[in-house]
Amino acid sequence: MVAQGLTQEQQAAFERDGYLLLPGELSPERVKALFGETVRLLADFQLEDHPLTKFSTDEKAHIGDDYFLKSSDKVRFFFEQDAFNERGELTCPKEKAINKIGHALHNLSDEFRADTINDRNRAIAQSIGFKDPLVLQSMIICKQPEIGGKVPSHQDSVFLYTNPPSAVGFWFALEDSTAENGALSFVAGSHKWASIAKRMIRVDGNKQGTGFITLDGVEPPREPAEDEFIMPPCPAGTLVLIHGSILHKSETNKSRKSRYAYTFHMIEGKNEYDNLNWLQVPPTEVGGRNFTHLYA
User: What is the C-alpha separation between 73 and 103, in angstroms, rounded?
Assistant: First the structure.
C-alpha cells in the first residue's frame, strides 16, 4: 500500500498555524518499542570518561564543547543543568539526569531509524513541499521529573539555519505531554511574521564553542505575550510537525512524571547549508551534504 501524506485540510492547517498535531501517528507498539530503546540507552551509557556536558537553553551559556560539536554521527548524552549540586556531583541516578540524547539516532539505532526513514514520513515531507529533504539530527528529549529544564521561546531554524530557512521538526510524544510535565506550546501563525533574525554558529574555529550572530537587515521578532501561546493536548503516539520559524517553548517539568519524546529535524537539501552551522557531518565538515536523504 502506498503511504499517504497529509490531507488537504491538514496541509492548510500546517500552513496557517505553523504546527500540526497528528494523534495516533505511532502505534502503541511503536511507542513501547521507542520508549524501551530509550530506557536501554539510558541504562547502558557509562559515566567513566564522560565530560558531564550539560545542555543549556540559555543563549548566554549554550554548550559548545567537543563532545557536543562532534555528536552529529554519534549517540551522546547531555545532562540537565539541575542534576548537579554546587560541588558538581550528580544528585540523582544517571538515568534520571539526562536532558537529551543525540544526534544520530536515525542512523545508529534500528528502532529510531524505522520511525524516521520510512514511506509515511516521505509522503508527509512531499505534502509540505520538500524537494530533497535531508535528515540532519535526531534526539530523545527526556524532560526529566522535577528537573526537566525550561525551554524559552525560540525558532528551530535559528539553530539549523539554511538560506532560505527550511527546517521542519518531526516531534513524536513517547509519553503523554501535559501542562504538568512541560508540554510544548506555540504561537499559532507566528512563522508568517517572525523572521529568522539570528543563527547559532561555531565560534572562532570551534575554539570558543558556539555563539549567535544577527542577520543583516532582518528585524528581530517581538517577544510574544504569555496569552499568545497555545498548549494543545498531546497524548503518547502523537506526531507534532513544527515549522522552523514558529515561536514555541516548554516549561520546567516540576511533576514526578517524565515527558519523553523523539524528534528529528530535516532541511531542504536544495538550500544553502554552510560550515558556520554548529552541526557538521564528518569527514568533510563542509557543505552539510552528507546528511541522510529522506527520499533515497
Answer: 7
DSSP string, 223-285: PPPGGG-B---B-TT-EEEEETT--EEE--B-SSS---EEEEEEEETTSB--TTBS---TTT-
pLDDT at 58: 62
Domain boundaries, the chain: 8-278
Task: Please identify every stretch of the chain with a pLDDT value under 50, giving residue numbers as ranges.
Answer: 284-288
Q: What is d(CA 269, CA 58) in angstroms, rounded to the nearest whole number?
A: 29
Judging by DSSP bridges, how do beta strands 75-79 and 198-202 pair with one another?
unpaired
Cell of residue 75, nine digits: 549517540
- What cell numbers appear for 74 in the block? 554519534
Q: Which residue has the cell 519523553?
A: 260
Q: How far is CA 286 from CA 78, 239, 276, 277, 291, in A?
A: 25, 32, 9, 10, 11
CATH 3.40.1000.70 fits domain 8-278:
no
Whole-number pLDDT of residue 288: 45
Q: How many CA atoms lie within 13 A of 230 on its CB side?
A: 14
Distance CA 266, CA 260 (A): 20
pLDDT at 115: 98
Biggest CA-to-CA distance, the chain: 57
> In Å, what is the CA distance from 237 to each residue of 85, 161, 262?
35, 28, 10
- DSSP H helices, 98-167, are 105-108, 110-114, 119-127, 156-159
